[in-house]
Design a protein that fits this description.
Length: about 250
């Protein structure tokens, strides 16, 4: 539960109790309690570990805490920096069936390469909500917005199914028909990043299963351009900034 501490300090752009600012990966150096520092397993590249400590832990937490495993049918909504890792981890955890959801068909090939058993383009397949009704135990949603077909996603859950939102909404979520949720025993939850224990477990699983995030390396000097490219949707699926030290800094 440490990740829900009301006095937690964010990795970047937050303030410590003494007034200092956290700079995350942009800091020259940092000092932390050893409990919140993670040893990177052998075989896990730095660029993969960097992505997993952010996006990876965000999707691993709801999968782990909601019992994702061999008897679980899971839906991952959104196939970007968060969602592609959701598919990878759901498959690594042995989930019975993993369905990836996105708006168009353009990411179908990527989803299947990541290991998804099925892919659904919600803006191009009119009957998707009917075809997949009551087929999933857990949905991890990495997207948000007023246009999201939230009610239709909830209809995909089996009785006592759970919908977990990890994409941070900038606007209110769509309104819901509560009665259909009551009659199905549906739960709606929200999740932040993972606890230290689950992060260590996630890193170990990634090393054991050979999980690699889909990353594109960019030198730190291109940080501004990387942000612009990300906003244009050009990341597949995560940009990683590399700080190349000169000999004087080594």
């Amino acid at each position: 539960m440490e990740n829900y501490c009301p006095r937690r300090v964010g990795t970047y752009g937050d303030r410590y109790p003494n007034g200092g600012i956290s700079y995350g990966g942009f800091a020259d150096y940092c000092r932390h309690n050893s409990y919140s520092v993670f040893s990177i397993p052998e075989g896990l590249a730095s660029e993969d570990a960097a992505v997993m400590l952010c996006a990876g832990s965000t999707v691993y937490e709801p999968l782990k805490e909601n019992g994702a495993g061999p008897s679980t049918r899971v839906g991952i909504v959104g196939l970007g920096g968060l969602g592609h890792l959701g598919v990878l981890f759901a498959k690594a955890m042995g989930c019975q069936h993993v369905v990836a959801f996105s708006r168009s068909m353009k990411k179908k090939e990527d989803a299947l390469k990541l290991g998804a058993d099925e892919y659904v383009a919600t803006a191009e397949e009119e009957d998707w909500a009917e075809r997949y009704a009551s087929t999933l135990d857990l949905i991890v949603c990495t997207v948000s917005g007023t246009g999201m077909p939230l009610q239709r996603y909830l209809g995909l859950l089996r009785p006592k199914g759970r919908f977990c939102q990890v994409g941070i909404p900038e606007e209110p979520l769509p309104s819901l028909d509560a009665m259909t949720l009551v009659l199905n025993g549906t739960s709606i939850a929200f999740s932040d990043s993972a606890s230290p224990g689950n992060i260590r477990e996630m890193l170990g699983l990634a090393a054991k299963k050979g999980i690699k995030a889909w990353t594109q390396m960019r030198p730190m000097e291109e940080a501004n351009q990387a942000v612009a490219d990300m906003e244009k949707g050009e990341a597949r699926f995560r940009f990683v900034l590399e700080n190349r030290l000169d000999e004087r800094q080594r």
